[in-house]
Amino acid sequence: MYLNDIQRSGFYATLGLDARKFDIHVIRKTNQSSGRLFPVILDVENPYFFEYLEICSEMNSKLIEIDKIEASPIVKTFKKLPSYTILIWYLVKLYLLKPIDTQMEWNKVY
């Protein structure tokens, strides 16, 4: 969602929204709700979480720009390799961030 919405930040601007701020808010709220349903949730308050997402967004933008250039598919593929490598690396780093255990919350009666 974050990578896709950042590409369409112009659309959000026409609605009077900042795409990044809006997505960060939605991700935090969704994560908060997920804690009531799932035993673990993402640690979106980890200082690296949104930093890594932003790097992934930058690499995604570079990949889109490379697609727009006039070059052979082979040249485009070689130009994309560094961005793909960085994107995959940071997606793995996001995946490996320690999650938050929410099972303690499951015993609370509301």
Q: Would you mind describing this structure in some detail?
A:
This protein has one domain. The protein is built from 6 helices and 2 strands; from the N terminus they run αααβααβα. The protein has helices at residues 2-7, 9-14, 19-34, 47-68, 73-96, 103-106; strands at residues 40-41, 100-101. Strands 1-2 form a two-stranded antiparallel ribbon. The longest helix is centred in the last third of the chain and has 24 residues, at 73-96. It is flat. The two termini are 31 Å apart.
SS element count, helices: 6
**Succession of helices and strands:** HHHEHHEH
Strand order of the largest sheet: 1-2
Overall pLDDT score: 88
Number of domains: 1
* Alpha-carbon Rg, integer: 17 Å
Indicate the structural class. mainly alpha
Helix content: over 70%
Any idea what the shape is? flat
Number of strand segments: 2
User: What fraction of residues sit in β-strands?
Assistant: under 5%
Low-pLDDT windows of residues: none
First-residue to last-residue Cα separation: 31 Å
Largest sheet report? 2 strands, antiparallel
